[in-house]
Amino acid sequence: MSIAARLLAAVATPLGPGRAEDLQVLSWPGRRLLVQRGDTEVVVRGLDEGGPEVRIPAPWPLRFGSVTVSPAGDVAVFAGVHALRVVDRSGAVRGEIRHGCWSDRVCEVAHASFAEYADEFYHAHADRGSAASSPDGKLVSAHVRNGPEGGVEEEWPVPNPDGAATELLTATVCNAL
Hints:
Layout: E1 24-28, E2 31-37, E3 41-46, E4 54-57, E5 65-69, E6 75-80, E7 83-88, E8 93-98, H1 121-124, E9 130-133, E10 140-145, E11 154-159, E12 165-169
Antiparallel strand pairs: 1-2, 2-3, 3-4, 5-6, 6-7, 7-8, 9-10, 10-11, 11-12
């Protein structure tokens, strides 16, 4: 039996080829968002209703972490090398949780800003955490490393909508597909 491939849709990339990560489609019941992360911003476009693009400023370049967005597409959660940062479309930081370094090289500094390690090779090539949003946008979970004094344990802080940590889970969580 053969199945012929056919084009179902074509969507222009918000940031163009070579300027950003591959496109992501984030899906929740009744809502799909096209998301593309570049060095200076993340662009969000609703796929179902053809809504306007939302551009959220990025706190650090692309290679220094990952990102997810809320189901409304108006808030991004950046999981970086040393911090988890919640940013709204105006660029305002709604919250930040500092954490230990994702670099495989021992980094014992609790950096206060991205500028402190922006030019360091090991930080530029560090692993990265992750973040995800619940379908209603009221819960975000993130995968981070704890502070340098605590070794290399991994944690799952759960920030409330204003960005402050309200719960800390200390076991690495995996979902089976």
